[in-house]
Amino acid sequence: MNNELILLRHAKAAHPDQPMRDFDRPLKDFGFDQAEAIADWLEQSGAKPDIVLVSAAKRTLQTIQPWLARHPDTAVKELDSLYGATTGEILMLADAETKAKLVLVVGHNPGIEFSLRYLAELDAQGQRHHQRMRPGDLAWLRRYADEETWQPGKSKLLKRYSALR
């Protein structure tokens, strides 16, 4: 049973001049810099996800690529269903990874932000948790020991990181 979850919103995406599906939008140059910074932070923080659940959208795949290049043996599931996923869908996917201790989910807003608010109503200092999840933001949570699934307000926010700095 997984008891830790990292929610990562994709890095800053481009708004190309040519028409294209939102699903196909790439990262902008700054977004690629953010992706490298995210990989650095994950490494420095000792994050060792057992599995990465990543939206199949171009910008999410590009966001996690620097991490995966450094850790090619990490299990990865590219999921069309994470594009536009709701909180319930995100947490159902995470809960399904019963053999993983730490699950990293790379997705989109509003699902990523709503999932954070749902899980960690109070932050690590006991403050109301209403912070946004901007592009390149992540939140690392631990489920309370007596919980078997991800439930509202039953997680401790361990760490936050923003690559927008």
Jot down its keywords.
globular, Rossmann fold, 165 residues, 4 helices, alpha/beta
Indicate the topology:
Elements: E1 4-9, H1 29-44, E2 51-55, H2 58-70, E3 75-79, H3 87-95, E4 102-107, H4 111-119, E5 137-143, E6 155-162
Parallel strand pairs: 1-4, 2-3, 2-4
Antiparallel strand pairs: 1-5, 5-6
Helix pairs in contact: 1-2, 3-4
If you had to describe this structure to a student in words, what would you say it looks like?
This protein has helices spanning 29-44, 58-70, 87-95, 111-119; strands at residues 4-9, 51-55, 75-79, 102-107, 137-143, 155-162. The protein has 165 residues and is of the alpha/beta class. It has a single domain (4-13, 23-162), classed as Rossmann fold, CATH 3.40.50. The longest helix is centred in the first third of the chain and has 16 residues, at 29-44. The mean pLDDT is 91.
**Span between termini:** 34 Å
Individual helix count: 4
CATH hierarchy: architecture: 3-Layer(aba) Sandwich
Report the principal-axis shape. globular
Main sheet makeup: 6 strands, mixed
The H-level CATH homologous superfamily, spelled out, is Phosphoglycerate mutase-like
Average pLDDT works out at 91
The count of DSSP E runs of length 2 or more, i.e. the number of strands, is 6
Order of helices and strands: EHEHEHEHEE
Determine and state the CATH class.
Alpha Beta
Summarize the structure.
The chain is an alpha/beta fold. It has 4 helices and 6 strands. It has helices spanning 29-44, 58-70, 87-95, 111-119, and strands spanning 4-9, 51-55, 75-79, 102-107, 137-143, 155-162.
